[in-house]
Amino acid sequence: MIKFNPKGDKLLSIGNDDNHSVAIYDWEKGTQVNAKVDMSEVFGAIWQNEIDFVTFGLKHVKFWNIKGT
């Protein structure tokens, strides 16, 4: 799954690895931030604004912030 933030300068992706890792790409700056989401299946992600997003899945909801990227 991939989703651009509302401004369109960051791209979020959720991997199919064991930890369903999230990666945020700032394609204008050429930077990337990675984090592990959950061992349970991740169903989706929603951007709340330019730097905050939510991931949700089987038995979990997680709130994220990417300040400083």
Question: Quick check: average pLDDT?
Answer: 90
Count of DSSP helices? 0
The major sheet is characterized as: 4 strands, antiparallel
Spell the H/E element sequence. Answer: EEEEEEE
Description:
This protein is mainly beta and 69 residues long. The protein has one domain. The protein is built from no helices and seven strands. Strands 1-2-3-4 form a four-stranded antiparallel beta sheet, with no helix packed on it. A hairpin with a 7-residue loop joins strand 2 (10-14) and strand 3 (22-26). The two termini are 21 Å apart.
Characteristics of this structure?
mainly beta; globular; 3-stranded antiparallel sheet
Short description:
The chain has one domain (2-65). With 69 residues, it is mostly beta strands.
Describe how the helices and strands are arranged.
Layout lengths: L1 E3 L5 E5 L7 E5 L4 E5 L6 E6 L4 E6 L2 E6 L4
